[in-house]
Structure formats: structure tokens, C-alpha cells
Amino acid sequence: xIQMTQSPSSLSASVGDRVTITCRASQNINKFxxxxxxxxxxxxxxxxxxxxxxxxxxxxxxxGSGSGAHFTLIISSLQPEDSATYYCQQxxxxxxxxxxxxxxxxxx
Amino acid sequence: EVQLVExxxxxxxxxxxxxxxxxxSGFSFRSYxxxxxxxxxxxxxxxxxxxxxxxxxIYYADSVKGRFxxxxxxxxxxxxxxxxSLRADDTAVYYCARASVVPAGNNYYYYYMDVWGKGTTVTVxx
Lengths: 108, 126
Fold this sequence. Notes:
The structure holds two protein chains of two kinds.
Chain A: E1 4-7, E2 10-13, E3 19-25, E4 33-38, E5 45-49, E6 53-54, E7 62-67, E8 70-75, E9 84-90, E10 98-99, E11 103-107
Parallel strand pairs in A: 2-11
Antiparallel strand pairs in A: 1-3, 3-8, 4-5, 4-9, 5-6, 7-8, 9-10, 9-11
Chain B: E1 3-7, E2 10-12, E3 18-25, E4 33-39, E5 45-51, E6 58-60, E7 68-73, E8 78-83, E9 92-105, E10 108-116, E11 120-124
Parallel strand pairs in B: 2-11
Antiparallel strand pairs in B: 1-3, 3-8, 4-5, 4-9, 5-6, 7-8, 9-10, 9-11
């Protein structure tokens, strides 16, 4: 199985900050990488697919980049509603997809 | 409104069985591949099983292969997960998720789960 490793595991930032979350794959996955946001008690919500394509309805302050085995999710100006856990997920080995362990983002 | 609604979760003893259902609405269910994903308390999501839109192709994660069975009824717009020989580590919230694809070139496709239900909770305990 392809292992996905996120860093940091948790972080705290202030409203308006630029936040970066990193995801590394255990092998080359090209651009087959998706990002999800999950708020407590809710289902994961797709933010970005194919590394950098914003899902419909997702605010433009979210962006993704990378290729191969190194990917990043950037929130350009943090908002209070962005407090959540973020997961990367590889779809290279579809349908046997795997998720990262998550990055918990708190608002200071 | 595009929607998935899971049901069938509950408390079951170790070794017991449950059947989860997922009712789809607001989209052409028969046209989409579907998945079951679970999330144990405090853990990240774990993919469990996939079923194709129409040709019957099915895959399972090793953790549930031989114990869980995925199926669908396109006429009823419903997805199912039959779970047998349940263990304590099967305790989780179970989600159904719709899969969408876009071309990536060279006959490859970007695959992503764009619609999720709210989940149904399965607790395995004596």
C-alpha cells in the first residue's frame, strides 16, 4: 500500500495567517492527490482533487500544489471556519486509495 | 440536492453481523462508482470497498476481505455493505462516498470522492 505522511500533525494559527500543510507519499503518485477537510462530527469534504483543482464551492483561499511524492495545501488567509482536520489522499492506486493521518488546524 | 444517506448502524456483539444501506438522491446513481469508507474514533478515514457503476467489479481492503460484502441496486438507488464476523476494531463511523473521475491523459483518470453521506455509527462491543 502507498503510505501518506502529513506534517505537521497539528498547528495553531491566527486569522489572516498563511497556512501550509505538507503531504508526502511513499512512492511517486504523479498528481493523483486529493485534499479533504473534516470538521468535528461531520463527513470529510473534498477541497481539492488532482493536486490543484479546486472543488466547486470551495473558497479560493485554498490551493494545492506538488507532484511526484511531495504535495502542499495552502490556505492563503486563514478564516475562523477553517478550523478543522485536513487529510491528503492518494488516488494513484485507485480504487485502493489511502489517506494521510491528518493535520489538525486550530485557530488561536 | 445531491445526497447520500446511510443507515443500519448500531451496537452489535463481537462475531455478529450488520447490513448498512446508503440511499442516493439528486444524481444518476447508476452512472457512478461507489465506495464505503470508515473512520474509527480519533483516526483518519480508511477505505473499505469499491463497486463499479455497472459491470460488477468489486474491491476490498485487506482488513475486511472475506468478512464484508458490498453490493448495489441501481433500480433502488442504493448501496449496501453486509458485515459479518464483526470485531471490536470494526467500531467506526461508516460512510458511503460517490466517486467521480476526470481524464488525466494517457488513458488515466483522476479519481476523487466528491459526495459523502453523514455516516452511520457501528459499535462492536459485548
